[in-house]
Amino acid sequence: MRITRTVAGRSRRAAVLATTGLTASALLLTSCSSDSDSSGSTGPDANGKVTLTVADFGQFGYKEAGLFAKYHELHPNITVKEDVTSDEKVYYPKLLQQLNSGSGLADVQGIEVGRIKEIVDTKANAFADLSKVINVDDWVSWKEKQATTPDGAVIGAGTDIGPMSLCYNTDLFEKAGLPTDREEVAKKVSGGWEDYLKLGEEYKKKAPAGTYFMDSASAMFNAVVSSNAKQYYDESGKPVYKDSPSVEQGWNLAAEAASKKLTQGLAQFNDPWKAALRKGTVATVACPAWMAGQISVNAGDANKGKWNITTAPGATAANWGGSFLAVPKSGKNVDEATKLVKWLTAPEQQAAVFKAIGSFPSNKGAYDLPDVKDAKLEYFNDAPIGQIYADEAKSIPETVLGPKDGVIKDTISTQINNMEQRGTGPDDAWKAATSAIDKAIG
Fold first, then answer.
1. Tell me, what's the pLDDT at 46?
2. Which residues are 383's β-sheet partners?
3. Per-residue pLDDT at 177 exceeds 80
4. Half-sphere exposure of 66 (CA within 13 A, CB side)
5. HEC sequence for the chain
6. What is the mean pLDDT of the segment spanning 88-111?
7. For residue range 29-55, what is the model confidence (pLDDT) as tens digits?
8. What is the CA 269 to chain-centroid distance, rounded?
9. Which residues have a Cβ under 8 Å from the Cβ of 405 and sit 6 or more positions away?
């Protein structure tokens, strides 16, 4: 799963999920490819051999799952070369430059969900239409709609999604007098994220010294917003984040968490956040599917068995994250690249990636495969993550996406961190966020 997978602070990734138990040692794998500028598409050589280039960011898991090698076995004349940019925030501007210049593009390009709307609106003509190649009904209902143009062209095949759960430290819960059984914890937060904060206040009363109920109020904010169909834009493409009920709810809850000192105020995926997991000072983390791997790796072997996973607060499912594979029309190997994309996003291959690094499939056909259906996380007390995430994925609402979703999320998250870390008042923080967003999106 990409190490810095989502724009909005969602880092990607690592999670090692085996159907009977996952080992942390395989988590947070980095690709064998290094950051590079040489991803341009070239045609077959004199012997008919084809090298397909796949440009992506963070960790998509294809090499870790052995899929490129397997594809070569199935198609001996084709070799797949992956060009990885570690940070999506570096990758995306480069992709836009390549699209504008018409050169340097790979045969296959990864696109983050926070960018897909902008690509659909402004660059769709640069990509091959996959609607006749893949069956969009094979994906969860909302996934392929995100990559579909108004005239029905599908410019990207969905890779993974981020169904929401709640990860919690059972050791800290027990010391604070809270239940540790996943079913009991689910009941405590069944009313929604408001109940989650109430649980946080219970935790604080008997919390072990130097510990906090949650790592980051901005993470909770993202989880709250992600559970709503309308977030930052309306159906007409107008930014409505200032009046969005989900943004208002998430912001108010984040401000409450900050004011009540329920959060350690850590920017996720930075070194202090990793250290907090290792030292065991954080009791809960909002957990899209890919987050389990981050916790496993950064908390380390010393905390194995001290964590568990339960369903997310409330009755509304949420998705945080996900990406697509797209085929630029300008490539020299469009037909072969399209076949590769179809194969990589088929159920069996998505299940293999899930087993290897924890990226949860967006192709529904993978949910009944053993590597997904029976998946448990040994590190998290054998939490049945295959069942938890599949149930969540099937009821996630279709989200209205906007071209600058990522910018808006990032900016709001920064100001939430300021409330936590610097004591900035909610009104001042909101003014700073909206001012920065308005300048950024025009």
1. 56
2. 377
3. yes
4. 7
5. CCCECCCCCCCCCCCCCCCCCCCHHHCCCCCCCCCCCCCCCCCCCCCCCEEEEEEEECCCCCCCCCHHHHHHHHCCCEEEEEEEECEHHHHHHHHHHHHHHCCCCCCEEEEEHHHHHHHHHHCHHHECCCCCCCCHHHECCCCHHHHECCCCCECCEEEEEEEEEEEEEHHHHHHCCCCCCHHHHHHHCCCCHHHHHHHHHHHHHCCCCCCEEECCHHHHHHHHHHCCCCCCECCCCCECCCCCHHHHHHHHHHHHHHHCCCECCCCCCCHHHHHHHHHCCEEEEEEECCHHHHHHHHHCHHHCCCEEEEECCCCCCCEEEEEEEECECCCCCHHHHHHHHHHHCCHHHHHHHHHHHCCEECEHHHHHCHHHHCCCEHHHCCECHHHHHHHHHCCCCCCCCCCCHHHHHHHHHHHHHHHHHHCCCHHHHHHHHHHHHHHHHC
6. 95
7. 333 344 444 457 776 665 779 999 999
8. 13
9. 7, 8, 114, 117, 231, 232, 233
* 14 band by pLDDT with thresholds 50, 70 and 90: very low
Lookup: tokens for 54: 């796949």
Question: Going by C-beta distance under 8 Å and a sequence separation of 6 or more, which residues neighbour residue 212?
Answer: 261, 262, 263, 264, 281, 282, 283
Q: How far apart are CA 155 and CA 399, in angstroms?
A: 18
Q: ∠ at Cα 110 (80, 116), nearest 5°?
A: 160
**CB burial readout 132-164, b (16+ within 10 A) else e:** eebebebbbebbbebbbeeeebbbbbbbbbbbb
pLDDT in the model for residue 45: 63
Q: What pTM was computed for the model?
A: 0.80
